[in-house]
Each structure stands twice: as structure tokens, then as C-alpha cells.
Amino acid sequence: MSPTLVYCLLGAALLLAAVLPGVIRRWALSAPIVLVLAGMGVGLLPVTRSATIDPVAVRPWIEHLAEVTVLVALMGVGLALDRPLRPRLRASWGTWSPAWRLLGITMPLTIAGVALLAWGPLGVALPAAVLLGAVLAPTDPVLASDVQVAGPTLEGAEDEVDEDDEVRFALTSEAGLNDGLAFPFVWAAIFLAAGAPAGGVWRWVGWELVGKTVVGVLVGALLGWLLAWLAFRSTRRSLRLAEAEEPLLAVAALLLSYGLAEAVHGYGFLAVFACAVTIRSVERMSDFHAAMHGAVERLETLLTLVLLLGLGFAFTRGLLANLDLRGVVVGLALVFVVRPLAGYLAFLGHRTRRGTAGLDHRERLVVGFFGVRGIGSVFYLAFAAGTTAFTEERWMWSTVTFTIALSVFVHGVLATPAMRWLDNRREPLAGQPASR
């Protein structure tokens, strides 16, 4: 395509992004659905028919664009959460129990379910099967906005937790944390394909699983505390960016936390989320959080626009060329069986910090079902394939992107009705003890 045509298409895409929310508000459609369809439409134009997309050839570009998009989304998710996490208070850890259950139960079950399905009945090589499970396990902070919290608020007392929003909190906190915690399992697949380093399983458990996770969280939390102290409480007025309402602090925070964590070999994704949550927790009653979240959200919208249009375009230009029945089975099984079942099981016996019953049957169904797959999966696959060779790489590209498309359409259509169903059900129960 000529540069002039590219400029025209990008301009039209930006205009589409600007008018899209108002246009589709009355229908049960999400913006990602429309963007993917628009990209497919561009790919079917006569002027673009000569273009072909080989994900292996453009892998570095895909990796870096997806990486930046996920980083921006993680900062936005961390700033959006009103529920503080104070490490020294046991009760604070309890309020995050939905996140711990989704990470400790749902995520391993999802990885194991996808990997065993691919390796056993479908005959995929073990390294590729493990990688497939790892890259498809994380829920997406980029595409799941319809089922997540909307943004930071100033409602409630300093330590009050909104128990009525457990579903949105669970899905939001999961999306923020599991994008980093998928990395150990991606590395397990890389070791299976390339050969384990010295130390074998113990090296993986001690460093890839535990060590890098701890380093990433510590770097993010410490940097977040320092930046929040400077922005809100510094003795020098010139450093109190909250008073100047300079939202670029959020962008600086995500770049610093990611860069520092990666420099000391920690997980940068976790560092960014930990940094954002810490900044939000240090000084909760400030409008500055909404300003930072708004700036990050606009940047995320632009990056997501480019990726979704590109994904839709690639669907019609060869990205799905290696999709077969095995890939279709993996995608359908993940979206309709593996993730919903793993998510539902994680909350059996769940109780809130007040000792009352946790999510009810309907809420468990929603949390289990809405494990949206998206840009994070694209990044992990590009990262792993760029680190070592996988014989079934092109098949995995087709399978992963098919699964993302399936998730975008299924979850995009059902998200608004499902959340409205839960919200309407809560209204008659307001002020009354819920029947669990």
C-alpha cells in the first residue's frame, strides 16, 4: 500500500475510534468487535488484496506493540482499583481474596486444561502445548473494560470496600496480576523446547516462578511509594505533581517501573501493576488519580485501536491460514468449557472478609465465563517464539488469534447484558441480606 493510503486509513480509524462509543452505546456491541470488523473490511478492499501478513516475519513489531499496549493497560487497571492493598494488614489481604483465588486456582487449572487437551487428544508437541496453555491463560486488561471497574472514585470512607462490586473487582484485579504471572509458564515452555538451564526444575521454581515475581512486585511497590510520596507529600512544592495535576506522572511511572524491574531481571508487568496499585493506595482521596487514569486510558485507546484494526486486517490476509480443527477445538474449549469451569470452581466455599458468603451462583458464573483473551496472549506468543524455535509456531499464531477473535465476539456481545443482569438483580436486594 502507498503511504498516502496508509495515512487515509489511519485517519479514518482515529475518527472511528472517536465516534464509536456514542454510536454503539444502544446496542449490545463492544468497540473491539466493531474495530476487528473494520479491520477485516479494510483487508477485503481491492487496494489491499496484494498485502499478506506473515506473523513470523513481523514478529518483533507485534511483540513490541503488544508489550507497550499491555503495559499501558496495566497502569490504567492499577489506578482504577479503589480497593487498597496494605501488606502489613491481614484484613487487607482478605479483601483481595477474589484475585488470589483466580490466580491460585483458575489460572493453573486453565493452563493445565488447555495444555493437556492440546498435548493429549489433539497430538500437539509438549512444548507447544504448554506454551499454548500459558499464553491463553491470562485474562486481558486491554479488551475486558466492559466487565471491569470504570475508574478511580472518591466515594466511601478511607477503609471502606464496596462489596457489591465483587464481580468487577475480581475480573479487574485478575487482569492486572495474571498478565505477569503467566511468564513463569511461558518460560517452562521455552525450557521444554530449548533445553532446561542448570538447576532444572528447581531453577524454574526458585527463580522463574518465585524470584522474578518477588523482585517485580518489590520494585513496583517501592517505586510507587516513592513517586506517590513525591507527588502528594513532598516538602518541595515543585515536586508535588498532584497539585500541578500533571497526569504524565502515570506514563513516567509505568516506564520507570517496567525498565527498573526488567533491569534487575524481575517481571516488569507485575512491577507496573504493583506501582499503580501502590500510588492509588498511598493517597486515595485525590482527584489526581482520575486525571492520571484518564491520560493512560486515552493512550490505551489509541494503541488498542491500532492493534485491533491490524488484527482484523490480518485475519483476511493470511493470519488464519494455518488454522485447523485442532485450533478450533482449543479455542471453543477454552472459551466455553475450560475457563468457565475453572473460574466457577475457584469460588466454591468463598467467603468475604466479614465472614459472610462470597459470590453467589450467578456471580460465579459471570466471573468464570468472562475470562476475556486478547493482546497479552499475542505478546507472550511473540516473546516465546522470538526466544526459541517452536516447530508449530504458525499453527499457534492461527490458533491464538482465532481464540482472541472468538473471545472478542462472544464476550463482547454478552458483557453488557450479563453485567446489567447482575446490576438489576442487586437493586432489589440493596439493604437486605443476600440469599446465598
Number of helices: 17
Instruction: Output the CATH class name.
Output: Mainly Alpha
What's the architecture in CATH terms? Up-down Bundle
Order of helix and strand elements from N to C terminus: HHHHHHHHHHHHHHHHH
Sheet bearing the most strands, described?
none
Based on CA inertia axes, which overall geometry fits? globular
Number of strands: 0
Classify the fold: give the CATH topology. Answer: Na+/H+ antiporter like fold
C-alpha-based Rg, rounded: 21 Å
Poorly predicted runs of 5 or more residues: 156-164
Helix content: 55-70%
What's the number of domains? 1
Beta-strand portion reads under 5%
Q: Please state the average pLDDT score.
A: 84
Structural class by SSE content = mainly alpha
The CA-CA distance between the termini, in Å, is: 58 Å
